[in-house]
Structures
1.
Amino acid sequence: MRTERQGLNSLSQADLCRFTTLIASLAMASGRWASPLWVAAFSLVPIALVGWAWSVALSRSAPRADFVFNSGAEVSSLDPAVANGIPEGRVIRALYEGLYTRDPMNGAAVPALAANTQRSNDGLTYTFKVRKEALWSNGDHVTAEDFRWNFERLLAPETASPFASELWCIRGGRELTTGRDAQGEPVAAGAVPLGVTTPDAETLVVELVAPTPHFLELLASYQTSPVHRASLENARRRWPDDWSTRWTKPGYLVCNGPFVLTSRRLDDRMRLSKNERYWDADRVALRTIDVVVIEDATTAFNLYRAGEIDWLDGTIPPSLVDQLLAGDDFDPQPYLGTYFYRVNTTKPPLDDPRVRRALYAAINRVAICDKFLKAGQKPAYTLVPWGRIGTYNSPPGKKEDLDGARREFEAAGFGPNGKPFGTLQILYSSSDQNRAIAEMVADGWHEYLGLDVALENQEWKSYIDRQANLQYDVSRSSWICDYPDVTNFLAVFTSDSENNRTGWKNPEYDALVEQARHLGDLGQRDQLLRQAEAILLDQLPILPIYSYVSQNMVDPRLAGFGSNALNDQNPKFWYWMDDADLERSRRKMNARERKVLSHGPKEGLYSPRAQIERKAGGRTRR
């Protein structure tokens, strides 16, 4: 049996009629009304959700932004050290910039505020020169001290950053966060100084515990972006009880990235405006960006087709995937993410690995991927997406096994003649896709294991809080890597990782991951990590379901938007192509059979630097 604990609000027919009129006018204005795909998409609009789309489409207090994208969920935090999600990363990339960022075309770590980088021969010391021209949005200079203080803040236990453990490669980082050394022995505060120093205002020196091949990849993660110390500390003095929310409000938040936050309405939208004090502002084309919050995939899709949204990421109705694959605005590609369910291993009977193995073996991943998702996702039997990253290959994972699932379940004392199991609850973040997958999983557990399964959806922030506090049975989850290294996946489930959120602890697993972190011999490193993943796949604190593909639906006129294995996008590089550039781009990319009508500006929108280059007779890529 499956029950739904949280329903949708009803909507009047009058509201539906008003929304229908709006969508019809938008569709006709964009020249899309005659499209069979448009008609099919519009027919999918659920009555209970169109009121939300109505409010999103009409509740503007300002003209339409140059670019609009859907975050899919309310952003829980604008503090880089605290944030830990895809919606947050999209916005933080626009507001802040660190020493390194990512090239949108290939995802490689490239210098940003680091004007120069030197590494010692032993790989233990990195020296960075911070750009002299870098400013905060209030006019203050960005200095090496800003980075030193932010590393210290990110690693401090009171910050509780979920990214802190990734930086334990810095000397003194682990000791600062945990108060213990690598052997678990207590360390007095300050006994091991943090290995981050500033010889002068422009020089930052970072000392590592051991050579860390992916260190620059870590610095390209949005979590290592600095925040403005003076404004944060001022907020803590003025508002000691709620400084963390007041500090990031429009008009108070001080940024150093290509955009600043100018307005925000929770659960609706935020407006970002170009930061004219940004050191590379001449290369930024967009003047305004709106980030809207629409959790329902069908509503978001309809607004995209009507020209109200320019980019969707992962909120594509699966029922339309087959049709969309023919267009040149939708191109799913494998990327480094895994969709899985976390299991609360502290809660009986889920603390029994045999129960977790039964749940794992009774999930029909093939049906989820091939019959429902249909965009190229593949069943996942390992934590590492697609079973490999770089030189690393996962150990073979066990596949679906219904007879095996029943045997494990009965061995744990449950089943037809066993003790009662009780109702099992699946917690998921609100979206049609998450709900549909939870229903398919629940149906399988009911049919093959006889379980009663309840579904509960929560908005993003509440869902994350519930996970962090282990207030769930089984919870929908995913991990999209911050940097392309297998340790970014396996380190998540070490005992002291803030991102574990399962209650599972295994000393042997911890030791293998720790030993492998800093090995220079890739063969030996991969061998240790395979042993670690094999333990994870035997104990199953998580239930892998599928490996992700990117599902970007983006206006074909947009340039500077890349397809990379991290699906890491940075609005600094985006611009609108004019008709001539759009046609050249389509010829170069060998566009698919159906060219989607663009609703972007036909005259294009280029950065000030690009406009100068174009007037001089050249072309620009950014």
2.
Amino acid sequence: MKVLEHIYTSLKVEFETQYLTEGLSREEVLTLENQSNYFLPPELLYAEGVEYPVKYVLYPLSSRYYCIGRGIYKGLDSLGRVGNYLFHNVLFDTKELVAHGADPLAVLHKLIKDNYFVSDSQESRPEEVSLEIENRPQLFDSLTAEKKQNVAKLLLLFTEESIPRVLVVGSEPKRIEFAELILSELPPSIKYMTGIETYGYGQGTSAVISCIPEEKEYQGTYGEKIQVQWGSSESISFRPTVPAVDSAMLQHFTTLDHTDRIQFIDFLFSLKQGSASIVHFGELSKTSQEFFALRFSASLLHMAIRANDLSKVELFAGNLGESDWKQLAKNPIVLDLLYAGNYGFLPRLTQAIFSEKTFSNISGNANFERMVLSILQQQHASENQGAALAVQSNLGAWISAVKPREEIVLQLCAAYAPVWSQETSLAAFADSLSYLQSPAIAFYRELARSFGSKQFPSVLFSLPLPDNQNALHTLLRKICSQKQSDIMKQMKKHTAWFEQLSARSEGSNKACLNILPLAVSEGSKKGFFSFLK
């Protein structure tokens, strides 16, 4: 790819730009000049036979360009003044670097290998730089367990609200190694906005990671930066102490492979910045998804709601607490998305809605009506049991609040009927049906009331029998629960009605055998069984 260049050194009056490729704005040039600095300890300015450090810098110049530069000490300038240096900056299009997956340190190694950097502006050099870069070894994976833990602590600090500033102390190859180690483990969202200098002395640098030699003459005051002693020892010393990192997060992070580590930091960084997308959650490895689901389920849920994207909620639904489900239950937009998606966690959400009685949000929602019906029809399925109990307890309140269509109510009654028992809630359920006046609804209303009393309602004998088998079995169960004398009187009085009931119950004794054991005595069983014959 084509690159832009900038050379900065001491000229006749002061340090000035000696060479500049066209295309840079004045602001970008000023930034280059401010960042192109090289200082030495005063006692070394006049020293002879000293091998002066080489300074490499990597930083985002602007939204357009990423700078990779080299600074070298030149000694005396043309006027005999000490402290002269030359900076050669190579500017890459940031978008192309990202598109090629070109790690800045890998590009730096290629520039060094190809002898691209110059010592004066007259040296020739290629107009383009190839981004076909050989893969660099994964330094993190080669570390000892203790070093991995310490580097991981530092890497995870890059996920806080502000990126930490780090000062690295070590020999020249070790300093570059550390910078490469850190940068190679960061995702593009952080990597290309993280400034690095492999040698620094004095003030004025804006680098996130700044390195200095081990020699005492280079040591100084560097403010609040985290100082890292990076050498060949098995451990890394921090000064001041690095803030504590969640031990489970640290352990999980150090066991991931390179790609997963990058995705882990990227997601954690964007999550804490409030800019993460629930879509990116699906890009994490399965183990990392489980990790984030366990610790950040509430944040993930908020992201899903903000993005109106619930496609990944199923991945962490098992980690949501009561307050999370209640929050979902109160969001009408979410409900529309959910019930159109047929997600596996819908029973749990329905349970929250009925427990909270947040019925105003789902008034007239046909998808929700179908969900309630499905839960009642499959109430013995393990994933539906909790939802079914919540629905049964508050079904009457929902019908009263929403007043669904009669066809829906009839289906709900038929599905609910098999679990009716002598509970006071059935009376409230019966009352909730009063806004509908058809004979079919009246049958369910009176039958529900009868389960809360000791009497078999005589009004049932004037109402048409339902076709639904669940409803018929509920009716049979109620009949069998009556005293033998009471039910026999009714049988003699309403012979045609009981004959019709027998016929509707598929005309077979088998249809009644599952109901008859609920009768209060053997006599009533035999009497009723005999009648049906």
3.
Amino acid sequence: MVTGRNTDAPETGAYISSSRRIGRAKIAFVIDDTASMQEEIGAVREALTDLIIEFAARGVHVPIHLITFKDNVTSRILSSDLTAVQAEVNALFASGGDECPEASVDALRYAATTLNAGSVAFLATDADALPGSDIAAAVAELRASGIRVNVLLSGACSGGYKLADGQDLPPSVNCETCASKSYSKDGYPTAAIALYSVLAAETGGLYAFIPEVNSSPYFDPSGATRYENAAFNVMKAAVLPSLPALNPGFGYRGTTITISIDGSNTNFNATSTLTIGGAGVTVNSGGATSATHFVANVTVASGADLGFHNLTITTTLGKAVTEEATGTGTFEVKDTVTAPTVAGANPAQGTAGSALDVDIYGANTHFDATSTVNLGSGVTVNSVTVKSNSFLTARIAIDPTAAGYRDITVITSSNGETATENVPGPFLVTEIVNAVVPKLVSITPPVGRPGQTLNVDIVGENTHFVDGVSMRCKAPRTPRPDSATCSSRPVRKSPPFSTHSRSGCGRPKPARAQTSTSIRIPDSPT
């Protein structure tokens, strides 16, 4: 931003020009600071402080834009001076906000004007967007600059999803009428859960819903810690190797489950190994399925330490080059349950109109050939494959009009057992208005030595690479070497797959294209 004055008579006073920008941010923190965020704002403040401390320790100095919003939008600071940013973070507090809908979409649109291409916006809110918000314009502006939106949602104020302070819970979180029956003129859902899950999906970002932080019936003593951990991990995901998303994010004592871990700024490969801190959680097996995804089977011992456990995935990238991606308090160990319980679902999210397999894990269950699965109306269970008394796979088809969080119930008729869960959801059906998000999914090799010239293969998803289009290369900022040089233009080595092709189990296969280019890495840092 440029602030100026016209000193000619008559003097205009200070003015701000949005059309002239000197420097842009790498991260935007877009925070709802209305009174209903009383519990959340402290956790956001602590997470931001921890992030600034980590940035300082690692020598990371990137421009940060701190933005807050109520019914209007306020720019707090745009700076790479961590001390100055910390001072503004310390001043964050929750107040005001007469009505629940807030200016979240306007705040994101403003952030898009100040962020570098390929940056990340972190949004924390507990409310719907203001009526009349131009959601389609926001999505178009964010996608045009490749800006991902990572969302941490803790409540809503539309339909039956009323999870902020003093508001009611939905009678059942599979309530279709609660999720999104209201749409903007551009076809986007306006209810918070539907809107923000779509915003995250359509910009390639992360979405987390943690209503337990609020002092509502869903509150639990660990809710604030869970929210703060999520805020820190999702914020850190903007620029550092991290593990911001885990599904399921908890395990009961005495159970064995498969967990799915999403990485950010990671280069997982065949050497990647997972460790879980604290006592009592054993990694039985696991491995990378892509550069940013890792799947592991873990056992939670009956005497495992209760509470939050750190995750670390260590990857060898080259000679003497090791990547360490961490998730702070990402996995929670909960106490033993005595009733038949659905302990988790993987994946925990599906798109309206899609078909997929969902693994369902139980605790104190006795699944067998008579077990049936129910996820509410609009979700058809076509088959159930039982793999053990606590693990089954359901093949489901989701109606194009279905939306919202879904309870999962497993009924085993042979013994009269009914297993349910006690968390919001745990399965979310997301509406997608414009599903095609271009992404780079892998780079091979992921590292190179100073002074080296090498060929690099880049695989994109939902991309349309063509011959003769220049490629932008950029080296890490810390330490800051000279920019890596692209010495050839990308060439499409294979055509993308059809976005409509399907695999044997009915899942859409993303369109992918591969390019190859030669780069030269500078001899030494400057």
